[in-house]
Amino acid sequence: MLTSLAIIFLLGLFLGHIFNKLKLPSLIGMLLTGIILGPYTLNLLDGSILSLSADLRKLALIIILTRAGLALDIKDLKKVGRPAILMCFVPACFEIAGIILLAPKLLGVSVLEAAIMGAVVAAVSPAVIVPKMLKMMESGYGTAKSIPQLIMAGASVDDIFVIVLFTSLTSLAVGGGMSPISFIQIPVSIVTGLLGGIVLGILLTIFFKRVHIRDSTKVIIILSMSFLLVYLEKASEGVVSFSGLLAVISMGATILRTYETLAKRLSGKFSKLWVGAEILLFVLVGATVDINYALSAGIMAVLVILGGLLFRMLGVFLCLIKTKLNIKERIFCVLAYIPKATVQAAIGAIPLAMGLPCGRIVLTVAVLSILITAPLGALGIDLSYKKFLNKI
């Protein structure tokens, strides 16, 4: 296991650096590292690493979402208003609708199977988007109109919406049925997640103000609380819907609101943690990619993905109607909502594991969506933000 970790970090750093030199996002090199080392290519990773892959990916995701919360100023989101709410679900709904229209004709699946495929593909990747939005916030690009905050918050809730929808659709596919109650879980999980994070954030602020401990220890405490929030989501299944990831973000945002000086110091600590977590996340996501699956689907699967993206872009544009954003800023928002990686890697194989007839093709499309959109979206953000956004 230790040997595998050494190879992951060293090769991930090396290929990431190579792609940076080529003016391409380093995450492409990290994804490529995972594909090369993974079980479907050279198979150089220890089985213990692969068995822990899902947990390690979630660990990395929690680190970046905690950092996002510590930098997410609620006052900035209030400035954005209506578009921030619409970006949480409208683009995903448009993309799912596009895939429902295209997939039955191009891939020969049923409407329900196309909906399941759309729910897998429609989630954007906070692991790709959040670090880039934080970098923009630190450098002042787009912050006058709260564009990074809008995208960061919308992407986080977008994932929750899509995952709950995916769960409902797969339940219907295996005969469990789907009722209006299953859709009520979406707003309930958002509200309970927000409230849970806010309450915990307030309690942590009170504790940190009264008990003087090192910032490094505070980081450990906050990370541990984040892990518990994510566990609470699983533990509360069947009782009440609860979004652990949204709770993690709202906890960080509450600490920023109530103890700003501490939040800024801790954000720097989490930035350092992300250096290693980023490599781990994207290498392990790359390791899930089965090249044979990807090649078997061919051009039709790519057309479904690209067609769904066009619908998604239309959804983003509709969300931004009657806002103060100019055309360049709106185009940037469209580009920023392209990347997919983490959710697709996490749930793409579930229909196959459940024995659904569409499992193989859903996994194939999920894998291809990572390979196409993660580098495309990341590159689009990197190349456009300085040209399309104003710097304060």
What does this structure look like?
This protein has a single domain, classed as Na+/H+ antiporter like fold (Up-down Bundle), CATH 1.20.1530. The chain has helices spanning 2-21, 26-37, 47-51, 53-71, 74-80, 82-86, 90-107, 111-121, 126-139, 147-173, 180-210, 215-235, 244-258, 260-287, 291-319, 327-336, 342-347, 350-353, 359-388. The termini are far apart. Helix content is 80%, strand content 0%. The protein has 392 residues and is mainly α.
Helix fraction bin: over 70%
The CATH architecture category equals Up-down Bundle
Shape: globular
Provide the structure class.
mainly alpha
Strand content: under 5%
Number of strands: 0
Unreliable spans are none
Major β-sheet profile: none
Note the topology.
Blueprint: H1 2-21, H2 26-37, H3 47-51, H4 53-71, H5 74-80, H6 82-86, H7 90-107, H8 111-121, H9 126-139, H10 147-173, H11 180-210, H12 215-235, H13 244-258, H14 260-287, H15 291-319, H16 327-336, H17 342-347, H18 350-353, H19 359-388
Give descriptors for this structure.
392 residues; mainly alpha; Na+/H+ antiporter like fold; 19 helices; 0% strand
